[in-house]
Amino acid sequence: MTVKWDDNMLLDCLAKIVDHRRNEGKRYSLKYVLLFSVLAVLSGATSYRKIQRFMKAHRKRLNELFGSEWKRAPAHTSIRSILKGIESKELEKAFRSHSKELLETEPTSDTPKAIAIDGKVLRGSFDRFQDQKAAQILSAFCQNERLILGHLPVSTKTNEIPVAQQLIEELGLKGCVYTLDALHCQKKTFDAALKQDSEVVVQIKNNHPVLFKAAKRVETDSEPLDQASEHDIGKRNRIEIRNVKVFDSTSVLADSPELKDWSERIAAIIRVYRDTDCFDTKTNVWEKRTETAYYAASHLHSAKVFAKVIRNHWGTENRNHYVRDVTLREDASRIRRNPGIFARLRSFTLNILRKNKITNVSEALYDNALSFDNLIAHTGIL
């Protein structure tokens, strides 16, 4: 069976990438190398050699299904050379196009579409011989659908702050809530989202001491507009009680000359109190921890909405970063030249799996390795 090009979502997105190789070096079409590389990673491949083994094992089926007409699979050195030569911006453009195809256009609940922006270091990409530090990538992660919407590299000459603002502007999404950690409590970050008719929820810490003191003061100076509590009994010896209060920030911020500019951007201050009991299996003793955190929001919502959005932001570590490192072996990867290309192949993989409502990524990769039919049946490929 041969699939028509127009019916192939992933191949259609990858075909738009410009191939900068000279004509004599185009024995293997770029779109097929990329497509088959994504399929290989979906089957558990973590290196160029394993991608080559996947292509060699399934070459006939791939030719039949996608019309590639390869007489033999490329060597792993050829695959490495082709992938390393791709412009990161070109692949990123294709990735964002594919993620938009997967993303639901309307929110599936009363909670607004929340997007967590967080950075991650590719720890294995350092090169001591070339005096090259490990690469860092900032990504936008849709909390509701657990899809990665885009990435931007963070240069060693800058930091995450301007890159996050650029990523918000480039995504151009309307009506969503961007959640960020305290580093991004910046006026320009608020402005970048507000220009797109979107919202911001960001943690407040001592990097803005005056704003932090005002956030603490608002609790004693005014009554909460709304509050909500959650009692969570975890599966791993953990009991947590969370209390969320929402305060109107107008009076506290407007009265301070130093915070006047902030009053035009912040509509609410959120206080989150966590009371956690953790059971230590070594000592057989319950340990109690308490924590109070403050957040600034550009728009007003109920306490339940803020509680969900804030908690899901920190869930990004488990749903995205942890899976990349433990299951997809991202930190263990020693790809040093253009490591962002392979990182995006992993993102393609995770998005396709999440679109198919798969929660256990490790099992899904093993199932795909066992069955080629199971692999190509995933929504987001065809």
UniProtKB/TrEMBL annotation:
Pfam families: DDE_Tnp_1, DDE_Tnp_1_assoc
Segments forming domain Transposase IS4-like: 112-345
Record keywords, A-Z: Membrane, Transmembrane, Transmembrane helix
GO molecular function ontology, one term from the record: DNA binding
Gene Ontology biological process: DNA transposition
InterPro entries per record: ISAs1_transpos, Transposase_11, Transposase_11-like, YbfD_N
Membrane-crossing segments per the record: 32-51
Residues covered by the H repeat-associated protein N-terminal domain: 12-98
PANTHER family according to UniProt: H REPEAT-ASSOCIATED PREDICTED TRANSPOSASE, PROTEIN YBFL-RELATED
NCBIfam families: transpos_ISAs1
Name of the protein in question: Transposase DDE domain-containing protein
Organism the protein comes from: Candidatus Kentrum sp. FM
